[in-house]
Specification:
Length: about 350
């Protein structure tokens, strides 16, 4: 089969590989649509997960099952499925402890384009098919369904980590495709005010449609000063971090009320330490929680998130700004994600 691979850090291209073998609990799936992720850019051009040779990229897809193992009960060839970017081993001790995304080691629930070949290929392998696949509702378009693989579960996970409550004022730092889903998730959780940090008009428009009430730009001065001014020096109850650097925690702590929580899903690609300002952290006693996590994967989460789309409470359309048809456009879509033109949120390639 053909797959689009990372050949080494900074180099990519189409390669030929054997079709993956299907174990008794597994499925082999062919993609109906694939989406490019910022993480593919980090992996390929920044060496974020270290060097990889001839590893097929991609972890966001919707697909059709072509083969299932002898022990798989709920899926059969021909089924159209949602596939989470994180596919834990559900019988692992980490999963039993409630942290399935770390099954097999820290962050090891992330298998596609990390520990095994990803989804940018004619066929890909899904471990623990009954635990990780979900049936794709008919009303959901396969292109939109890719957004359910990673953007929705990750953006929503920031909201879960920040533990957003009814009536909260929530700051969302970074409104790329992940942060936009944090805005949507905070709104669904009952936030009264959502302050979004971002400037690109396409993102600002999408954030408005998802429920953001106020906007600031990190390019217009320190985030904390702008947030304190907007809130009459009160600060915010919760912060979702979906963009920025190790420096971003400093303003987040500064604007957080005592008892507040920060939910980070941003990948911190450089710097050895996170900066926590001592005084604003209540000299160690401020009850300001900092949490960070890899998105939870698995079937139940996929089914629940898809039900929000089915019921009309979550619209995925604003996320997909660039739609391509055919594998021949995959590279173009990937390079687009690297170069981030101003009108881009997410490129999706439909495999016709
Ligand atoms: P993105 O690059 O499209 O969006 C990040 C946004 O943050 C951009 O709009 C950028 O302008 C903005 N930004 C940059 N510096 C900033 C700053 N100092 N302050 C405020 N905003 C700033 O990326 P994305 O696809 O939306 O993903 C967001 C992050 O989530 C990435 O780091 C990605 O690797 C990570 N991620 C994590 C998980 C997970 O499971 N935790 C899953 C997928 C992606
Ligand atoms: Zn992704």
């Amino acid at each position: 089969m053909k797959g689009y691979a990372m050949l080494r850090i900074g180099e990519s291209g189409w390669i030929e590989k054997d079709t993956p073998a299907c174990g008794p609990l597994d499925a082999i799936v062919k993609p109906l649509a694939v989406a490019i992720c910022t993480s593919d850019v980090h992996t390929l051009w920044e060496g974020a997960i270290g060097d990889r040779h001839n590893m097929i990229l991609g972890h966001e897809a919707s697909g059709e099952v072509v083969e299932v193992g002898s022990e798989v009960k709920d899926f059969k060839p021909g089924d159209r499925v949602l596939i989470p970017a994180i596919t834990p081993d559900w019988n692992s001790l980490e999963a039993q402890a409630g942290y399935s995304m770390h099954s097999g080691g820290m962050l090891a629930g992330w298998k596609f384009s990390n520990f095994k070949d990803g989804v940018f290929s004619e066929y890909f392998h899904v471990n623990d098919a009954d635990g990780n696949l979900a049936h794709m509702p008919e009303s959901i378009d396969p292109a939109d369904a890719c957004i359910l693989s990673d953007m929705v579960p990750t953006g929503f996970h920031a909201v879960e980590l920040a533990d957003v409550q009814f009536g909260d004022t929530v700051l969302v730092i970074g409104i790329g495709p992940v942060g936009l889903m944090s805005v949507a998730g905070a709104a669904l959780r009952g936030a009264s005010r959502i302050i979004a940090v971002g400037t690109r008009p396409v993102c600002v428009e999408a954030a408005k449609s998802y429920g953001a009430t106020d906007f600031i730009s990190y390019k217009n001065g320190p985030i904390d000063e702008q947030v304190m001014e907007l809130t009459g020096d009160k600060g915010v109850d919760r912060v979702c971090v979906a963009g920025g650097t190790v420096e971003t925690f400093e303003p987040a702590i500064k604007v957080l009320k005592p008892g507040g929580k920060i939910g980070n899903v941003n990948y911190l690609g450089s710097g050895d330490y996170i900066n926590i300002p001592r005084v604003e952290w209540g000299v160690g006693m401020g009850h300001k929680d900092i949490r960070g996590g890899l998105m939870p994967g698995g079937r139940l989460r996929m089914e629940k998130l898809a039900s929000l789309v089915e019921s009309g409470r979550l619209d995925l359309h604003p996320e997909v700004t660039h739609l391509f048809h055919g594998w021949e456009h995959l590279e173009e879509a990937l390079f687009l994600m690297r170069d981030k033109p101003v009108d881009l949120i997410k490129p999706v390639v439909v495999i016709d």
